Each structure stands twice: as structure tokens, then as C-alpha cells.
Amino acid sequence: MSKQLQLFDDLRYYEGTDVEYKGGRGGLPRSLWETYSAFANTEGGTLWLGISQKANGLDVHGVSDAERLVGDFWNTVNNRGKVNRNLLKAADVTIVPLEDAPGHALVRIAVPRANRRERPVFLGSDPFRGTYRRNHEGDYICTEEEVRRMFADQSEEPPDSRILADFGMDDLHGESIKQFRNRFSSREQNHPWLLEDDTGLLNKLGGWRTDRATGRSGLTLAGLLLFGKGEAIVAPESLPGFQLDYRERLSDDPSVRWTDRVTLDGTWEGNLFQFYQRVVQNLSTGPGIKVPFQRDEGGYRQASTAVHEALQEALVNALIHADYAGQGGIVIDRYADRFEFSNPGTLLLSREQLLRGGVSECRNKSLQKMFQMLGVGDKAGSGIDKIRSSWAAQQWRSPSIQETLRPDRVRLTLPMVSLLPEEVLDSLKTRFGDRYAELAPEEVQVLVTADQEGEITNQRLQEILTLHRVDITRLLQTLVRRGYLVAQGIGRGTSYTLASEASGSAMRGDTPPHKEPIPPHKAGSPLISSPDKDAGSDQERLIALAAPVKASQRATPELVRKVVLALCENRFLTLRELAELLGRTKENLRDRYVAELVREGRLELRYPDIPSHRDQGYRSTTDVAA
Known about the structure:
Helices cover 36% and strands 15% of the residues. It is α+β, with helices and mostly antiparallel strands. A hairpin with a 6-residue loop joins strand 9 and strand 10 (217-219).
């Protein structure tokens, strides 16, 4: 089967998306359509028919009736009684013959991410019962609220243009409007909108609107958010879950939670404009900010460097793209080595479109217009480009964008860490010796990122390199074959860690001298030690606990469950750590054991609010007799 496996290795999947394997011997599996919906409503992905996933790897057997399966697939995906939307082109469904298995072939179905106007993609006639999404545990059926949020994003009427019943000018903070006028005037002194009274100015900005269909006029959600009084914004009739939080975490003392904080504490009027002014001021100086903001003729702070512009853009992006009906509010965390901007909602564009730039999709268009009058909040789809290019000019590691579900949130991380630190380069030269000289610049960058971040993925490298994801796949596979990286997992879960030059396997106890030890829950790190035992003895005990399962591929499900619970007693372990201990794949453990134990309440999550957290861990909820 060598040619077959080589063919599969060449065409199998792009790690930048997700992947699902279906046997297909009995026709199109019913679960295929759930995965189609889940892929479309999340990040897209690739379905393979003719491959079965076993405990010890993949069984690439193919199907004998590939043409018939493809015909059945097209008939179903175009049947609006079965699936509400077909996202696929002819080129997205291909048949891959297996040379070593005459008459058999694989069927590859590439499902793209649906755009905001196409979501939700659902099965049957009821979107509230047939809409799926995908997280680290596989496909799951969406709640009614998740489906409603998709329909809300689909609307051409932005959510911030909604006219609020029984709200008016008395609910606005007059000083905020005055300050906005002054800032607007300092930028465009002769702008005709400045001649309007407050209601007229709000109308021009989108903060006050007349509904042409009903003739009803009133304050919009955008007007209340930017200029409102705090108690009006959080009223039950508007946004009772509204939250704003800026936190500086610049102390080396672990007992100090933050060194400064701007939150809705009653000491200032809690609207977006006041929050923006305070946070911009905090972003202007401090660690990593070499030049302070400058002031314009009106005395207002203006970005004076590319870094300042990027920070302003990141702040405004979080404010204008947020789903204010979502959970968690706007949260901005500042550390000595990075900024993190987090807002509720999902990405309206795919990550690939965001990185390409040039396309503008904004959830709150009136808020966007208001900030544009202040000179921030680009409408040309170049906001992320501006941030990335500013960071590249500083030779800092590239920003990263992470989208999480349940609750839906988007987090932009801006690291202020050198792209190619000398100490890391020296460490790699020591690790790989003379072989280091063979590496191309892109390969060096991959290894540096793996060293600094503990592990890398294709998706992360798309944010750093200018290569296409397919070329990144080949680059990673080449580094694995040459012994520089070790691959773990499949599909979107595939990650890569640095290999040991001596053994060709991932480093286990040798933390480079320039790095702090990786926290125990991070992939590839030593297993967690108990307070009264050293790491070695604890790891030996876990290895002994896992031995009955690891030694046998025929261990009973009851035994595997019992051992998983015993391993997770009094500690959080990740799927990767469990897989390493038990000699099973992460996917096998997740699908057959861990997800079920979580549903039964016998395992708890380290991050219960973020089920798909990249560092998710599991701990037994009760004592286990191993």
C-alpha cells in the first residue's frame, strides 16, 4: 500500500481547515450531512469518503462505487428539503483513485466556510433543529440563540441601527457629545455636519434615525452605545449585559491581579466614547511603547507612530465589530509582552479573507462611521493589514486572531516579542548543529515560532508567512521528514513541536535556558506534578496507571474509561497528554471516552466557558479507585 499511502499523504488535507473521515462502504453516511452543516457554519473543512479512523490510525480502504456516491451527494446537497444551501462548486468534489486498490477510490469533499449572508446552513426545514457547528469534540447541534445570532448577522440592517423604543436625548451624556464635537472639529474644522444641533449631528452619524416604512424616529443603539448614560445603556430594555473592561497586568508579583483598570465602576460615564478616550490614553505609554502619543491643535492625542495607529485600530475594531447582544463584553488585557483585544461575536469574514485584506464587513456600521469621523476605524478592509504591517515593521511576532465558540468571541493578540530573537537563533544552532545552515529563511521562522510558542499550526503560520496554506502544509511536512519538527494529531488539530536533534522526537525535559518552563497544561510539556511529589515520580505514577491500556490495543472500553478517570484525578490533563500516556489518538479518546465522560459529569473542563480552548484540560469530578 506504499503508493496509496504516499498519495494520501500528498492529498489528504490542509491543516488550516478541519478534516473528517467517513467509511462510505454502505453509501453516504447520515453523519456526513451534520458535518457538512458544521463545517459550513464554522471554519470550513474537508470530508473524505473511503477512510475509516481506527484506534491505531487511519484505514485507507476506498470505496468501490465512487461515481454513484458522488451522484448521490450532488442530488442530496441540491435538494432543499434535505439541505437549505449548496455552497459547493464542481471542483470541490473530486474522486482520487487508489493505485494499489484497483476499482477503489477516495472521494474528497471540500466544504467552504459560509459567509454571513449564507449562515445558517442547516438540514431539513427547521434551522433551530438542523443547524450544526464544530468544536474540538466534533459536530454539535446549535442552540436557538446561536441560530438567532446567525440570522442577525445575515441581515442587511446592522444591529446598531435599531431604533430604541422609549429612549431619547435625555438618555445621552451631553459632555460626551460635546467632547466628540471638539475632537471631530480638531480633525475637520469646516465639516458641514458640525453646524448641526445635537439631534442633527446624531442623525448624520447614524445615532438617530427615521424608519421610512413606519415614519418612526428615535435614538439608535449606536447613539446610545457611543454617547449614552451608563444606566441607560445597561437598562433591561437595551443591553443589560453590557460590559467594558481594560486591564493592565504589568507587575511581576503574582499576587497583583492588575496594575491599572478601566471598567464600569461608576467613576466615569460608561459609554463607548468615554471608554475609548481612557483606553487610548493608557495605550499611549508603557512597556514596548517607545514614543508617546502626540497632541493635535485641539490638545487631543493623535497616533504618532505605526504602533500607535495599530493599537488605535485594534481598539476600535473590537468596539465596532462586537456583538453587543453576546456574552462577555469588550475585554482588553495588556501584559508586558503583548496586548489582547477580545469582543463578543464571530468573524463575519473567513480568516483567509481577513489576512488577504481589501474586503470590509462591519457588524456595527453606524459605530464605524462615528469613529471614522475621529480618523480611526478604516472602512476599506485594511484594518488588519495596517496592524500586521505595523507589527512587521517592528520585527515583532505577527498578530494572531482566534475565534472561539460557546460563547462566541474573537480575540486579537498583538505580541511585542522579537520575530527572530538572537537567543532563540543561538539555541536552534546548538540544537541542530551543522544542519541549521541548510534551512531556508521561511524554515527558520517556522522553527523560531515553534520554539517561542511551544507548538505551531498551519493556521498560525498563515498569519506569519506570506505563503499559501498548501505551501505551508508542504513546508511543515518537509520539516517533519527532515527531523526538525514532530507532528501530532490530524486535521485542524495537527500541531508541530521542535524535535530533538539527538532522537528526532519532541523534547521532553530539556527546556532551553532562555525560556521559562512551559506551563503543565501546554502541549508537549511534562505532566502535572502534585504539590507533595516531584515531577518525575508523578509522571512515573501516571505512566504506571496508563500501562494496562497502552500495552493493549484491545483494552475494553470499561478499562479505558476507568484509567482516564484515574489519570485525571486531582489534575487537569489535555487530550494530547492523555493520548501520549495511553497510546491512543486524541480523536479516539475524545470521541469514544472523554466527550461522554464530560456529558456524564464525571470529567470537568479547565475552561468551561470556552469548550474549544486550545489548552483545554479534563479533571475527574470525584475520587476514582484506580
